[in-house]
Amino acid sequence: MEENRIFDPNIVFMKKYSFAGSILSADLLNLERDVTAAIEAGIDIIHFDVMDFHFVPNLTFGPAFLKALRKKFPDTIFDVHLMVDDLTEAMVYEFIQAGASWISFHPEAVLHVDRMLSFIKSHNVKAGVVLNPATAPQFLRYLWDKLDFILVMTVNPGFGGQKMIDACLQKVSDIKAMAIEAKNNVIIEVDGGVDPSNVARCIQAGANCFVVGNAFFGQKDKALALANLNKAIEDL
Ligand code: DX5
Ligand code: ZN
Q1: Residue 95 sits in a domain of what CATH number?
Q2: pLDDT at position 4, please?
Q3: Is residue 11, in this structure, part of any structural domain at all?
Q4: Which of 52, 57, 136, 193 has the CB geometry, 3.0–4.6 Å to 164, for a possible disulfide?
Q5: Do the domain assignments include residue 8?
């Protein structure tokens, strides 16, 4: 994997809404089969959750795992969500080299948020920050020119299959209002408990990109799962 490979993000950035399937809910022993099915079903992005047992009480995938996926799926957008404490540029670089297309991190996990965003962008990778349910959004006000996307957690990070915390949608609305005021077209992605019953409310709050774990990779028929999500928003 060449470090400077430029992924064409335009398909997603120009789409009105996009879906990011989280492999946390895939059948890990049949991951190649599941990701192939996800792409064939029309998923826009593959969401890759990195957990370190410290920032969150769970442990998942590392750069070697991403590299193997990238090799099998050279044209897929891999959205790497780092739930890693004491995050350094060296760690992030491992994921850049392994083929990440988007990288987001939690501001609580790094000393210099602005510097880390610049570092990611300098490698032609889309950069974002992630807000936990209790993280206030005001700091975004000083980062607009560095943010390609914002990931708003609608559950406490660590596990798939949790129920959405409704209060987090108010924060999505607040962020959308801030973005409009700043005349910034940033992608607002929501992560946690998104399903056909609430995806319309996520859009009404201002989100335009949706991580779907249980509601997509957790479902046997991925085309049907995506159709159900799209059906829930077709009238918006
Ligand atoms: C949770 C992860 C999510 C998770 C979402 O910490 O960040 O990406 O996979 O899964 P669902 O959609 O099942 O809540
Ligand atoms: Zn995630």
Answers
A1: 3.20.20.70
A2: 37
A3: no
A4: 193
A5: no
Residues 70, 76, 77: CA angle, nearest 5 degrees = 100
Contact 211, 189 (CB under 8 A): yes
Ligand 1 pocket test, candidate residues 154, 155, 168, 210, most atoms within 8 A of CB: 155
Treating both helix axes as pointing N-terminal to C-terminal, what angle do 89-98 and 113-121 enclose, rounded to 10 degrees? 30
* Whether residue 2 has pLDDT greater than 50: no
State how far the Cα of 169 lies from the Cα of 179, in Å rounded to an integer.
15
Q: Is the pLDDT of residue 10 over 60?
A: no
Please tell me the distance between residue 182's alpha carbon and the centre of ligand 1 in angstroms.
29
For 124-155, what is each residue's pLDDT tens digit? 999 999 999 999 999 999 999 999 999 999 99
Q: Would 6 be classed as within a structural domain?
A: no
What predicted TM-score, i.e. pTM, was given to this entire model?
0.95
For residue 1, being part of any structural domain is answered with no
Atom of ligand 1 nearest to the CA of 156: 6
Ligand 1 atom index nearest CA of 212: 12
Section 209-231 average pLDDT: 98
- At 35 the pLDDT is 98
**What's the number of domains the chain is made of?**
1
Give the separation between CA 138 and CA 151, rounded to whole angstroms: 14
β-strands 102-105, 18-22 pairing: unpaired
List the shell of residues around ion ligand 2, using CB closer than 5 Å.
Answer: 49, 81, 191
Ligand at shortest distance from the CA of 25: 1
The C-alpha atoms of residue 129 and residue 150 are separated, in whole angstroms, by 5
Q: Which domain holds residue 87?
A: 16-232
